[in-house]
Amino acid sequence: MGVFTTSHEQVVYCHDRPSGLRAIIAIYSTALGPALGGTRFYPYASEDDALHDVLDLSRGMAYKNALAGLDLGGGKAVIWGDPDKDKSEALLRAYGRFVQSLGGRYYTACDVGTYVQDMDVVAKETRFVTGRSESHGGAGDSSVLTAYGVFQGMRAAAEHRWGTASLAGRRVGIAGLGKVGKHLTEHLIEDGAAVVATDVSERAVEWVRSTYPQVDVVDSNQDLVAADLDVYAPCALGGALNDETVAVLRAKIVAGAANNQLAHPGVEKMLAERDVLYAPDYVVNSGGVIQVADEIEGFNFARAQQRAARIFDTTREILQLAEAEGVPPAVAADRLAERRMADVGRLRTILL
């Protein structure tokens, strides 16, 4: 993939040989403000895979931040390596120096493979970092409001599909019981939903069995997708919605926390043809970025949660627009995000 074939403003390769750091920072757009997006620490099969992921994720962050109503652009970073083996203070601090070198064009935060404690280390080298621990004045674990926002988006989708903004009595399948999936399970059970779940981690499966014994656990995502569900919630890595899964999917709503759920262009049309209502991932999972963005101005949880609650209204607006214009929800969401980036970006240009 050639970087110049994309619409990204800037892509930075970061290499620190002594610590072993190999990272890529991608800034998709600063039309709305400095780019904000997390740092993913993952053992990619190749450099090309790492580049492909960071380009996709940074674009998604630009659209997510736009629809979340934030005055922030979109960016993302990936660190190529195994976080269980390669992560160290020296590596994280080296990464922080690269973030600092961008002079505020990019704010980083947590993502897959990184945690608030890691952001505290990164912050030793840069002030352009959010998602820090509460003991350091940060917002803490952003998965709290990510899950809350997914739940709000799911409620809006339920209202659009069934006429009631509740999951009570509905059967919801969660693929991935990580940081977000655990909180989402709690929201759904409190709302009266029946939850079915799967995870590749035995520790996560043991957690849900001991904490919520009423949750049905299935062996694989393939089993979950083919199960008798009302709602399917992908909450692990991207690409969950592909030709194979959509063909056997029995749920009538898809609303989950994973980024880049559509494996390729055209999947959104396949979902629509099968009468599956798709709540766009970057809309419903934006609670986390709302939480860490609030930290930039001095974190207040109540204020951030109030902002995250608006995900219900944004999801409802997108689903109504999609129905009125006869397009898939993903297309309607893209149009709204692009409109805000263009309109506000134009104002920023005039002011500058």
Strands, total number: 12
Strand content: 5-15%
What top-tier CATH class of the largest domain fits best? Alpha Beta
Q: Fill in the CATH topology of the largest domain.
A: Rossmann fold
- Helix count, DSSP H or I runs of 4 or more residues: 15
- What is the helical fraction, as a range of percent? 40-55%
Tell me the overall shape.
globular
What is the rounded Rg? 19 Å
CATH superfamily of the largest domain: NAD(P)-binding Rossmann-like Domain
Q: What is the average per-residue confidence, as pLDDT, rounded to a whole number?
A: 94
Order of helices and strands: EEEEHEHHEHHEHEHEHEHEHEHHHHH
* Major sheet attributes: 6 strands, mixed
Give me the CATH architecture of the largest domain, please: 3-Layer(aba) Sandwich
SS-based class: alpha/beta
Question: Uncertain runs with pLDDT below 50, 5 residues or more?
Answer: none
Keywords: NAD, Nucleotide-binding, Oxidoreductase
Family: Belongs to the Glu/Leu/Phe/Val dehydrogenases family.
GO biological process, one term: amino acid metabolic process
GO molecular function: nucleotide binding; oxidoreductase activity, acting on the CH-NH2 group of donors, NAD or NADP as acceptor
